[in-house]
Design a protein that fits this description.
By secondary structure, the protein is an alpha+beta fold. The protein is 22% helix and 40% strand.
Length: 254
C-alpha cells in the first residue's frame, strides 16, 4: 500500500512539474507574441503618422502647388481655428467660395484645374502671435485622373516567408482609373513600396506605362529581397498624384 502511495505521489509530482513547464512555456510564448505585436503596432503607427504628416504638409510631387489631388476629392488641412477665413477661386470653372475654419476640409474640388486659395487669420487681440499656419496665398492642383486600388482582390504569386530570398515574386492588384480628359491615353506606372521590420525589398513595376482604356487595370509589381525577422508587412501603393493607398497584410511573416 505504501509503495502504491509513493508511486502515485511520484506520478502526481511529475504531472505537476509537466503542467508547470507547459504553463511557463505558454506564458513565454504569449509574452513573446505580445511584445512582437506591440513593436509592430508602434512601428506602423509611426510610419502611418509620418506619411500623414508628409501628405498634409504638401510635398506631393511639385513645389509649385501646395497640394495635388484628383477631381471629386477634398483636402485635409487638419484642425483649423474657427477665426480663420478662406477663399477658393477658379475663374475657368466659375468657382468663388468663401469659407471659415474647418469648412475647407469639407469642400469638394469637383473639376480639374488650378485653384487659388487665400488664407486669413482674424486675430481678436493686438499682439497675438503673427506666425501663420499656412501661406497667405497658395494653389491646389486638381488632376483630371483618379485612381483607386481594389485590395480585396490583391494576389501574391508566392507565399511570403522569413529568410527566403525572393527574386521574382509578383504582386497583382486591380485599380480603377477614371479620367475627365479624353486626351489622356498613357500614364507612367505609379510606385509601390514595402515596409516592415527587418525588410529589405526592391520593387519594380512590370509595365512602365499604363494605357488608359479599360477602367479596371491589373497592375503587377516584381518584388526582390528578403524578410530577415518576424514582422507584419505594409504595402504602400501610390496613385498618379503620389498620394498613398496602403494595404496591410494581416498575417505575420515567420
Amino acid at each position: 500500500m505504501n509503495r502504491e502511495r509513493i508511486l502515485n505521489s511520484s506520478n502526481i509530482s511529475l504531472l505537476l512539474l509537466s503542467a508547470d513547464k507547459d504553463i511557463r512555456q505558454i506564458r513565454k510564448e504569449s509574452l513573446k507574441s505580445w511584445k512582437l505585436q506591440t513593436v509592430f503596432l508602434l512601428f506602423f503607427v509611426l510610419v502611418g503618422s509620418f506619411k500623414s504628416i508628409a501628405q498634409n504638409l504638401g510635398g506631393l510631387g511639385s513645389d509649385q502647388y501646395f497640394k495635388i489631388i484628383s477631381f471629386g476629392e477634398k483636402v485635409d488641412l487638419g484642425e483649423i481655428d474657427p477665426a480663420v477665413s478662406w477663399t477658393i477661386s477658379n475663374s475657368k470653372n466659375n468657382v468663388f467660395t468663401s469659407l471659415n475654419g474647418n469648412e475647407i476640409n469639407s469642400f469638394v474640388f469637383q473639376d480639374p484645374g488650378i485653384y487659388d486659395v487665400t488664407y486669413q487669420e482674424n486675430k481678436s487681440h493686438e499682439g497675438e502671435c503673427d506666425h501663420s499656419a499656412f501661406p497667405q496665398k497658395f494653389s491646389i492642383k486638381v488632376d483630371a485622373t483618379k485612381m483607386v486600388y481594389d485590395f480585396s482582390k490583391i494576389s501574391f504569386s508566392e507565399k511570403l516567408e522569413r529568410g527566403r530570398n525572393y527574386t521574382d515574386l509578383i504582386i497583382t492588384v486591380p485599380a480603377k482609373i477614371t479620367t475627365k480628359e479624353n486626351s489622356i491615353t498613357k500614364l507612367p506606372s505609379p510606385n509601390m513600396s514595402v515596409a516592415g521590420l527587418g525588410v529589405s525589398f526592391t520593387v519594380e513595376a512590370l509595365e512602365k506605362e499604363i494605357v488608359i482604356g479599360n477602367k479596371i487595370q491589373l497592375l503587377k509589381y516584381k518584388i526582390s529581397g528578403v524578410v530577415n525577422q518576424e514582422t507584419y508587412l505594409m504595402f504602400d501603393f501610390h496613385d498618379f498624384n503620389n498620394q498613398i493607398q496602403t494595404y496591410n497584410l494581416h498575417q505575420i511573416i515567420k
